[in-house]
Structures are given as structure tokens and as C-alpha cells.
Amino acid sequence: MKIMVIGGGGREHAIIKKIKENPLAEKIYALPGNGGIASDAECIEISATDLDAIVQFAKDNSIDYAIVAPDDPLVLGLVDMLEGESIPCFGPSRVAAIIEGSKAFSKELMKAYGIPTAEYEIFDDADDAYEYVKNCNIPVVIKADGLALGKGVIIAESRDDARDAIKSIMEDKAFGKSGDTIVIEEFLEGPEVSVLAFTDGNALVPMVSSMDHKRANDEDRGLNTGGMGTIAPNPYYTEEVAEICKEEIFLPTMIAMNREGRRFKGCLYFGLMITKNGPKVIEYNCRFGDPETQVVLPLLKTDLLDIMMAVTNEELEDLDVEFEDKYACCVIMASGGYPEKYEKGYPITFDSSIVSDDRGIFIAGAKREDDGTLITNGGRVLGVTETADTLKEAIEKAYRSIAKIHFDKAHYRKDIGKKALEATNGI
Fold it and tell me: N or C: which end of the chain has fewer CB within 10 A?
């Protein structure tokens, strides 16, 4: 099979490394890929949002199967375009991807179908939003309706912060048209949990839970980022919580999308908060999370390509999806200054001991020079994932591996998994 993977980050690298395990994957293309992915697939310089060029490439190269990983092309309808050319895909259609593409839609969906989430109001007029925050409870969460590279959510600790957020999103257009409409919602408290799930609209199979670390610096300080590391499974996601989520959130969401004529086929991401009143949905994503994918897929025992094709063919219920009874930790190495201003172009070197076993190295912001040198080319440069029988051991292994990778001005958190260890008494 000739397989095409859309995207060029650490998430896509993890997906590609996993599908390479299937003997059917004789040729893998990554569009656009990156310098690290080039070691595992042929990278093609086509942007993930250049939908017409992607479709033309698929036709010209007789692609047998496409995996659309990022949010933008999914929301824009790439899966619909490819399937219109008889190219089977893993990923939701445009009308299903709206579950991430519009926060207002997802909130209204949850309200209509009784799926637990934070209380909220929707505004498309800034003056109305300013009026609302004069009397609402503080802190409050303010979200741009559309896609905003994971940065369109602001927790306002004061009324001044709330007004500044409204101005930034709706008037200054910090996130472009994504901020034409905003959602202002109740601030929830409790541990956060990420759960990815395979679904074909008939069956839904949750993957191993994970815990993301969003802040740039240790002790959850600094700015929000795309994610500085993850561990799996999440200790706060107990069997009891998992059962509640399945019955009150996961299956009701799948059923709701079906009833709305928006059958979801692909990976549905549930961002959850375990509140004192039970688990509630913070957000939906219409695809694999990053860097959650980098800790979840290394624990997957069942062949990933087989699962994806079962989702495409609506045969997921016939497949037994299994995960290793182990723990995983992923630590992200970023460019100094990320997520604000940072420099690019520094050579990345690896100690020989880690080069011989690179299964857990997932490259994101890097490119390959003509002489073969891998250099930094983004904010989050790479992630290193290690698995073990205990969380403590997985964390220690990940940091030992991180110490074997070098580039100037590298930055990474030293406390990935610390809270999880505390919750499990250091196991």
C-alpha cells in the first residue's frame, strides 16, 4: 500500500513510526513532514492546508490510503475531497470536524444532549460580552470559537483580564476570524485528563488516558504552550471515572453526532476535567492530540494501521484493540524562548547509544540540511518517549534519553510527571 500522512510534527512522526510496523505499508509519504520524519517516510513539500495540491499528489501517485492528522485540513474538508476521488481516509469529514472547528457548536451540542460541561454563554458582539463580564463569576474562561493553534483559550483571573481577553480576541483579532465569536464559560477546578478514542460512528474505543503539561516552565509556571510533555496513563482517570466518562460523555457524544447527521469517523479527543461534581468536558478535538499521541501510541499493542482501516470501513467493533499494561513518559525539548521569540538553525546531535534505538524519538520542529545535518526549525523541536513497568521508571528513562540529545539553547521541563508521581505515591 502507498500511504499518505498529512502533517509535519511530532504527532505525525509517532503515527508514521507506528504504521511502519505493518507490512502492508510498503511506501509512506509525509506532506510536508520534517527533517526527522524524513528518516521514516518520503517528505513532500506540500503544506497541510494546500488541499488542492494534496489531492492532486494523491491522484498522481496512486495513493491507497490517507491519514489526515492536523485540525486545519480536517476542518477545511480534506477528507471529503480525497474520498470524492475514491481515496479512503482516516479522519472525520468536514461536517464532523466542526466539533473542534467551532467551540460554540460543541457547547450547544453538549447542552442539547445533556453531556456534562461548564456553564457558558456565546457572544458575537463585543459590547454584549463586556456587559456580561461585569457581573459573572471570576475567574472565568474566554475562548475563541474557531481554531487558534491551541492558544485561543484565556483564563481571566480578574474582570480587567476578562475585558482585555475580549478586546484581544474580538476587536484586535489576535486569532483572526476564529475570534469573531467567543464562548465565555465557567471556570472548572480539578485534575485534567486527556482521552483519545477511536470511533467509526458505530463503536467507540477509548485509548490509554494521559496527562499533558501545558505551561512552558517547571511547577506549571510560564506561558501556555502546545504541550511540554505527557505521561500515560493518567492516575486521576480511575476505572470508576472511566466508566462514568464512557456512559455519560463518550458514547453520548458519538450518538449525538450521529443524530445531528455528522457521523464522526477517526480519532475523537476528549479534554476532561475531573471536578468535585464528576468528570466534565473542557474541549473536543477532531484528531490525535500532540504530544498525547507520543505517549499513547507507544503503548498500543494492536496494529495501528489495522485499527485505522477498520474505522474507515466501519468495522471497529470487530477488532480487539489492546494496550500494554505499562507506563509512558514523553519529554519535549524546545527552543529557548518558546512559545514566544526563539532562534532556529542550531545543529541537533545524538549520543551513539540513542541513535541505535530511536523508536521513542519523535521529531517536530527540525529540518535536514543538504549535508544531512539535522537543525532546529521550530518552537517544539522534538519529544522523547520511554515506557516502563512503573511511572517512576518511565520518567527516569525519558530524562536519561533527553540528556543524550543536544542543541544550543535547548529548553525542557525537569518535572514532567511529578504531579502524577505524587498522585500514585511515587510508583
Answer: C
Per residue in 377-402, pLDDT (tens digit) is: 999 999 999 999 999 999 999 999 99
Q: Rounded to 5 degrees, what are φ and ψ at 161?
A: -60, -40
Residue 46's identity, in one-letter code, is I
Q: How far apart are CA 147 and CA 359, in angstroms?
A: 31
Contact 269, 285 (CB under 8 A): yes
Evaluate the omega torsion of the peptide bond into residue 32 and state whether it is cis, within 30 degrees of 0: yes
CA-based Rg of the chain, rounded to a whole angstrom?
21
Query: Residue 354 is placed in which grid cell?
Result: 540513542
Taking the model in full, what pTM does it have? 0.96
Residue carrying the nine cell digits 463503536: 203
Percent of the chain with pLDDT over 70: 99
φ/ψ bin of 220: left (φ > 0), alpha (ψ from -120 to 50), beta (otherwise): left
